[in-house]
């Protein structure tokens, strides 16, 4: 056996020359994968100026140097991107969403809570999930956030709290790309303002869908919103 079972770390061989090369390769891999965190899981192509050691979970529709890397880990080291394929059960802290994601069945799942409501003897499940982020608004009228409704999720509703006052608009709206007002409109901009936006009827999304916030009566200049989404998922 030339590599370890779980992280595929290279073993030193008897009478091997240049042992330091193998050792350094193993150390670099350990540094990339142990205590795993990623800056984001929302990018489908590499950032323009990555810092050494930067790690990302590659989003769907990957292009450029990340083409074909969907749901893999991209690690920037020695001026190049390295792909790591996660195993079932790996966990990764996602910085810009402030939650712990778990790799299950080829995709990353997670959020602030997950409760299994029922499970069959063969393992099929229905579970309710709640995912949460804090979104720092960027200048403009529309912000696409990193809070993602996953494919095949049936959304129960969204909540929002103004962590720091929104500067610029008179009020704001909460929704998705196809309907910017689906989960609330004319919402308060001062600190501690809240919104509870319920789905009027069972609503299932058939692709990963980001939550969108839209400014009314002006453009966003600053502020922070805590957003959460609760949804049902079936798994087999």
For the biggest sheet, the summary is: 5 strands, antiparallel
Give the termini separation. 34 Å
Structural class: mainly beta
Low-confidence region ranges: none
Q: In the CATH hierarchy, what is the architecture of the domain at 111-235 at level 2?
A: Sandwich
Q: What's the total count of β strands?
A: 16
Quick one: overall form?
A: globular
Q: Give the SSE order as H and E letters.
A: HEEEEEEEEEEEEEEEE
Oligomer: single chain
Beta-strand level of the residues, as a percent range?
over 45%
Could you estimate the helical fraction of the residues in percent? under 10%
Describe this entry's structure for a reader:
By secondary structure, this protein is mainly beta. The chain has a domain at 111-235: Sandwich (Jelly Rolls), CATH 2.60.120. 6% of the residues lie in helices and 50% in strands. It is built from one helix and 16 strands. The protein has one helix spanning 19-33; strands spanning 37-38, 55-57, 73-77, 80-84, 91-94, 99-104, 107-110, 113-119, 125-136, 142-149, 154-167, 171-176, 179-187, 194-204, 209-216, 222-235. It has a five-stranded antiparallel β-sheet, with no helix packed on it. A four-stranded mixed β-sheet has the order 1-5-6-7, with no helix packed on it. It has a four-stranded antiparallel β-sheet with strand order 10-15-12-13, with no helix packed on it. Strand 3 and strand 4 (80-84) form a beta hairpin. The longest helix has 15 residues, at 19-33. It is globular, with a radius of gyration of 21 Å. The mean pLDDT is 88.
């Amino acid at each position: 056996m030339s590599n370890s079972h779980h992280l595929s770390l290279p073993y030193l061989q008897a009478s091997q020359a240049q042992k330091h090369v193998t050792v350094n390769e193993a150390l670099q891999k350990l540094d990339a994968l142990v205590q795993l965190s990623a800056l984001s899981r929302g990018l489908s192509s590499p950032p323009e100026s990555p810092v050494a050691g930067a790690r990302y979970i590659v989003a769907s529709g990957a292009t450029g140097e990340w083409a074909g890397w969907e749901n893999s880990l991209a690690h920037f080291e020695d001026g190049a991107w390295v792909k790591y394929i996660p195993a079932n059960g790996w966990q990764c802290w996602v910085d810009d969403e402030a939650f712990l994601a778990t790799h299950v069945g080829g995709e990353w799942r997670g959020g602030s809570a997950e409760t299994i409501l029922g499970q069959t003897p063969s393992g099929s499940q229905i579970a309710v999930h709640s995912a949460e982020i804090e979104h720092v608004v960027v200048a403009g009228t529309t912000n696409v956030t990193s809070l993602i409704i996953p494919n095949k999720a049936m959304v129960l509703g969204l909540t929002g709290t103004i962590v720091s006052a929104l500067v610029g608009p008179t009020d704001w709206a909460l929704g998705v790309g196809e309907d910017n007002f689906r989960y609330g409109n004319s919402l308060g901009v001062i600190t501690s303002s809240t919104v509870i936006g319920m789905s009027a009827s069972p609503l299932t999304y058939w692709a990963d869908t980001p939550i969108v916030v839209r400014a009314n009566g002006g453009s966003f200049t600053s502020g922070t919103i805590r957003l959460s989404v609760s949804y049902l998922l079936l798994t087999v």
